[in-house]
């Protein structure tokens, strides 16, 4: 079963606006990761936040994690047309084999 | 970019035929994973490997088998392909010693169509 569920399923914004995507999960986690997928390509890792962290930044990306609510958000600031992609959260529930459980993704469209 | 290749990139086959997909890495990463991606389902783990000849089942393993005879290659076999296995298949790798946690690096994908 899916661990992470992204919300919204699709998001359309104008260039320069901020985009916020949310992820909810069900069980305790070791860390949560966000990935990006351009159409027809493989996934690319964006950022990882550990369970003892509350916020993390990387360039125009800001990720928050609320373990009490079992939720995370990904904020992309000052979006660009090149940010158009699907974004997935993935949870690591711990264990020795580093398995991730992916959500169904949010399709972000940034209009020029 | 991580050195991961998948072959073939596209394949059309008929129901009942065996199919083998190959994932090849040049990163010497210990962990390798096979996922399938379908509309409305996101990515689902089929099988994974935690070392040479060490493999285990994922969430949707029925109808699939895997083998890993050397570090760099992870094969996914559909013994008798069915239309429900039409999908895009992704291989991923991960390195437990990277210090960055279990970040996964993905291959370009194989689009498989079973007629």
Tell me the structural class of chain A: mainly beta
Low-confidence stretches of chain B: none
Number of helices of chain A: 0
- Give the chain pair forming the largest contact, with residue counts: A-B, 25 and 29 residues
**Quaternary structure annotation:** heterodimer
Content of β-strand of chain A: over 45%
Order of helices and strands of chain A: EEEEEEEEEEE
Residue share in helices of chain A?
under 10%
User: Globular, elongated, flat, extended or rod-shaped: what is the shape of chain B?
Assistant: globular
Mean pLDDT of chain B: 93
Report the strand count of chain B. Answer: 11
Helix-strand makeup class of chain B = mainly beta
Q: How many E-type strands of chain A?
A: 11
* Major beta-sheet overview of chain B: 7 strands, mixed
Task: Give a verbal description of the structure.
- The complex is a heterodimer of chains A (112) and B (115).
- Chain A is mainly β and 112 residues long.
- Chain A has no helices and eleven strands.
- Chain A has strands spanning 5-7, 10-14, 19-24, 31-37, 43-50, 55-58, 61-66, 71-76, 85-92, 101-102, 106-111.
- In chain A, strands 2, 4, 5, 9, 10 and 11 form a six-stranded mixed sheet that branches. In chain A, strands 1-3-8-7-6 form a five-stranded antiparallel sheet, with no helix packed on it.
- The relative contact order of chain A is 0.35.
- The mean pLDDT of chain A is 92.
- By secondary structure, chain B is mainly β.
- Chain B is built from no helices and eleven strands.
- The mean pLDDT of chain B is 93.
- The A-B interface holds A 1-2, 31, 33, 40-45, 48, 50, 88, 90, 92, 96-105 and B 4, 31, 33, 35, 40-45, 48, 50, 56, 58-59, 90, 92, 94, 96, 100-109.
């Amino acid at each position: 079963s899916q661990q992470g569920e992204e919300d919204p399923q699709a998001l359309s914004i104008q260039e320069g606006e901020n985009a916020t995507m949310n992820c909810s999960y069900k069980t305790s986690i070791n860390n949560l990761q966000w990935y990006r997928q351009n159409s027809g390509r493989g996934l690319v890792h964006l950022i990882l936040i550990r369970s003892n962290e509350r916020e993390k930044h990387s360039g125009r990306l800001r990720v928050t994690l609320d373990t009490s609510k079992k939720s995370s958000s990904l904020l992309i600031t000052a979006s660009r047309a090149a940010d158009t992609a699907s974004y997935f959260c993935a949870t690591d529930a711990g264990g020795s084999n580093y398995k991730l459980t992916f959500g169904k993704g949010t399709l972000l469209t940034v209009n020029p | 970019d991580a050195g991961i290749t998948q072959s073939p990139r596209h394949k059309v086959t008929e129901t009942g035929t065996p199919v083998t997909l190959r994932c090849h890495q040049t990163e010497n990463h210990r962990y390798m994973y096979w996922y399938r991606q379908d509309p409305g389902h996101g990515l689902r783990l089929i099988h994974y490997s935690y070392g040479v000849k060490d493999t285990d089942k994922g969430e949707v393993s029925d109808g699939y088998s895997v083998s890993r005879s050397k570090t760099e290659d992870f094969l996914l076999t559909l013994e008798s392909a069915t239309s429900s296995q039409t999908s895009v298949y992704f291989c991923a790798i991960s390195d437990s010693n990277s210090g960055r946690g279990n970040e996964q690096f993905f291959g370009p994908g194989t689009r498989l169509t079973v007629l």
